[in-house]
Each structure stands twice: as structure tokens, then as C-alpha cells.
Amino acid sequence: MTVVKKATTTQLPEVITMTTGQSSTTDELSGLTNNDESTIKFSHKSSSVTIPEDADVDYLVQILPVENKPPKHDSVYCNIVGGNVQDAFVIYTNAAGNCEIRVRYPNILDRETSENHILNVTVGFPDSQSSGTVTSGMHAYDYTLLTVTLSDVNDNAPRFLYPDLESERQRTYFGVLDLHAKEFTTAVKVK
């Protein structure tokens, strides 16, 4: 994974390019370079979490703590603006005003297809004239990158080619080795 940040002055938009083994995403997020300590922001600029690839719907992936929230937490908006391949994840603002990421479509999560998902998450609260979406004018907002790593579940377990054999005895394999066989000599090969 490569993350490149460009244009970090407050006059220019910040461009974040995320590259994984399969794809790259470029997002231009205006106004993210605000260094004012009193504005809404995430506690960390990046974090990572590991979840099982067989996580169920609504599985809690991560709670991203938000600092300097407005008094009314229901006016805090959390958005996943990049890296959410096939909408595998969903984000909510919880009662405490923090961003809560959960699994939406678990059948999309497959470690053999993609081991990591790098989510670009924003938080903010809207201007009084806007409708509350990032593109319509957030008063102040911040971003963080969350790397979700999938732990492997043995969903591709080895199996015997002859499952129709009826008894356990018929499915037993035996091998014979010479008493003086060298190390790592193949005893039985099951295909």
C-alpha cells in the first residue's frame, strides 16, 4: 500500500492517492488541512484493525473517536469517501458522536481476493445552509485512513476426491516407508 499526500497548504485542496495491489484511488478533499485545535477531528490520522473474513452483517469493525464535536452529536456526519470496494462496509455516527464502521456485505470480504481494505473516512458537521453531505458544504471536517486486514478462515479446506466412499475404513490411506528412508521422503500423496 502506498499513500501519497500532496498540496498540504491551507489554500490548496489535499489530494490523497491510495494504491493497493489491485487498484488505486485518488480523492481530492478540500479543506482537510485545517490545523485549528478547536475544529472537529479524528483522534488519529490512521489506524488499522484485523477482522475475520467470515464476519457477519453488522459486525463492528472499528469505532473511530472524534474530538472537538459540536454540542449536538446528531449533527456530526461520518462518510467513507474512498476505498470501500463494492460497499462492503457501512458507517454510522453513534450516540457519542464517533464514527462506527460495520460490515455491510460480508460475502464481498474474501482474503484470497483482497487481504486489505484501506478506507478513507471523513467526519464533519454541515453548514447551516447545506444538506449535510460532504459535497454540499461541510463547515469543518477531517479525514483518517483505516486499514482493515482480513484474517484467513479455512474456507478452501482440502477435501478428498472420493467423498462417495461409504465407510471411514474405506477412506483410510496407508503408506509404507523403508526403515532407512531419507528425511522428507514422500510417504503418501493424496490428490
From TrEMBL:
Where does it localize?
A: Membrane
A molecular function GO annotation: calcium ion binding
Keywords for the protein's UniProt record, in alphabetical order: Calcium, Membrane, Repeat
Biological processes annotated in GO:
homophilic cell adhesion via plasma membrane adhesion molecules
The record's listing under Gene3D superfamilies reads: Cadherins
Any one cellular-component term (Gene Ontology):
plasma membrane
Which stretches make up the Cadherin domain? Answer: 43-160
Protein name, as recorded: Cadherin domain-containing protein
